Amino acid sequence: MGYILGISAYYHDSAACLLKDAEIIAAAQEERFSRIKNDESFPSEAIKFCLKFANISLTEVDHVVFYEKPFLKFERLLETYVHFAPRGLKSFLKSMPIWLKDKLFIKKNIAKALNGIDPKWEKSRAILFTSHHHAHAASAFYPSPFEQAVVLTVDGVGEWATTNVSIGSSAHLTLKKEINFPNSIGLLYSAFTYYLGFKVNSDEYKVMGLASYGTPVYKQLIYDHLIDVKTDGSFRLNMDYFDYCTGLKMTNKKFDKHLAIQRVRETKNCWHFIKT
After folding, report:
1. Are 18 and 85 spatial neighbours (Cβ–Cβ below 8 Å)?
2. Which of 216, 237, 250, 274 satisfies CB 3.0 to 4.6 Å to 194 for a cystine?
3. Residue 91 is assigned to a structural domain of this protein
4. How much is the pTM?
């Protein structure tokens, strides 16, 4: 099987992981080297660390795998904008130049970055792309001690999927159930993170920590207005309260009206509490 280099980049918390014959050899986040929190840049230093740890050169790597499929993600963005048009025009105009300039050409950019690490590396054909949630499931199941397992992945959104249920068996992962965007537990959590005054894709852990000091006084309100949980565990969000499909914010005025919660404006040195 040889060496496989896994890469995540260009969104948040870029990282690299090196495997040999399906065994993890080394892994690191780029922020550990750049000292930039949640660094999203190409993980050059993390890759160098992994290669040095394994005492190999980049030319000895058989395959490079990126953590999602950009064209499917672009498809989701286009279909979402078309579905909600003319709402979302501002968000569309802001995101499209980035996609048309860089994100649609990620394979080329990865090849260029890897060549910058090692000029002898010329294996652009060795760059592969896996789906976002398959990458999540694989990272949980394959290093585990289990020969068989049910694997549940829940996050914001990958290409289309926000929640997946897979069956892991030996070296195989088989998708069984899937919930797609815009219905997302992860984005619901990020919506509250945003509403409370914290940074999305960064400060969710702060909300999680603070939650342990609270009581669930808003639980029924959330079930009544924001999310419909079915008896089989699937769910749907009430998109009347959210703005992330079309806008540059996670929530909207209707969300603000129904959830009069004390919020926080976080600065570099302190928190300012805002009563609503």
Report:
1. no
2. 250
3. no
4. 0.86
